[in-house]
Amino acid sequence: MNSPESVSMSESNYNWVCFDCRFAIRQAKTSEHIPRCASCNSKCVCVGYKLKIPGKSDTKGWEKLREISREMDQQTKEIQKKYHETRIAQLTEQIETLSAREHNKDREKLIAQLQEELDRLLLRDNP
User: Fold this and answer.
1) 8, 14, 16, 30: which could form a disulfide with 52 (CB 3.0–4.6 Å)?
2) Tens digits of per-residue pLDDT, 39-80?
3) Three-class secondary structure assignment of 41-75
4) Where are the alpha helices (DSSP H) in the chain?
């Protein structure tokens, strides 16, 4: 069980911040829009629900939070890139394997679906 000190805010909400204004807002995980800063109206950055949000006057705390946020963002991008590359390889292999088999209507439909997904992924790489 988590003690009150170990979790800064409710796990049912994400913390969103504006680093420039040191503004923080909580929003449900299920929300589909990005909140805006009440001071400057710029889009806030999601920092999850586990990180403690420093007080407005805690300059070092905000610097540390920004650093952690950048690290989390970089890790997320690396994970997404690896998944993207892995998925392209999987789709390519599946298409090749299925194409080598005897033709039938259902298999051709599946190959077309896999090819569409592959094309979308490749299009992301070359806009």
Assistant:
1) 8
2) 999 999 999 988 999 999 999 999 999 999 999 999 999 999
3) CCECEECCCCCCCCCCCCHHHHHHHHHHHHHHHHH
4) 59-100, 105-125
Q: CA 24 to CA 39: how far, in whole Å?
A: 11
In this prediction, what percent of the chain has a pLDDT beyond 70?
90
Q: Which residues pair with 13 in a beta bridge?
A: 28
Domain locations along the chain? 7-53, 58-127
Cα–Cα distance measured from residue 4 to residue 21, given in angstroms and rounded to the nearest whole number = 27
Amino acid at 98: L
Give burial (CB, 10 Å; 0-12/13-18/19+) of 37.
Answer: buried
Q: What are phi and psi of 37, to 5 degrees?
A: -65, 135
pLDDT of residue 103: 86
